[in-house]
Give the backbone structure.
Amino acid sequence: MEPLQVGEPSYVSYNNYLYEIAALILELHERAIKCNTEFTRYEQVMSIDARMREIAIQARPRYFDVTVPLDRDWPWFIPWARRSLTICFAHKVIIIHRSFLARSFENATFSFSRRTCIAAAKTILNEANQQQDVNEPIIWIDQAFCIAAAITLSVDAIHRHPHELELEVHRKLVHGCINRLREYHNSPLAERGIRLLGVLLLISDPTRATNTILQRTRLEFDISKILAYAYRGPSNDTVHLDAFLSPICPDSARSGDNVDNEMRTQYHVDAADLVENSVPELFPAQSGFSNAFIFEELLARI
């Protein structure tokens, strides 16, 4: 074995760089556990965010820098690794700010998280739309990251005023994500993402803004029903939005809509049951993490 020169890529370069990012995510969790208030936790988020940016700018190997011309002597996978790392890094930025994204829609103190997550989501979707080599492997996790980015933009769109320009821009990006997911045939992940994003697009539709069902101040939708539809729903595109109303939604919010009682009953499931029986766990039991944490914070305030 011979040591490589600094700046020379190898097969372990990709994982080494991801390790640095993963270590920061772990450190954030360790710091957050020790905090007693929401604002001290946010200080830790901002601190880790700054260090993530240092990794992206100063600690990133030059062969992973998309602005550096490709060298013929570099391994053939470098262009693919660049795209995948860009998507992965942007997704981890969303992960860092995820717990404050919902709060950022209501409290200007956390507005930095909203802007950061929106920018990261756009980076993911724009990078995923780049022309790819026909021989480039399909990395399934990139599909998941695109869905997470589209969810972020959807939730932001839901909290936009109907006349805001960003609302339509974000909805178009989500539409584009759905169309791209349709290219992945026989992919349960893509299929479920399409259904979930389809519901979120309906909720954010500005043409429905005059209906009291979609008041921006408080949207009474049952997340367990939306997730159940995403994981168990039919493959057709016909969706009755009223089927996803929360049982506590006042009758005034249902005016003018015919409620499909059968569909509401079909998709009314307990969130714990959904996680346990419908969604394969991402982590082993001894890790202490359930799939519930993926949805709780990001979608909690739709």
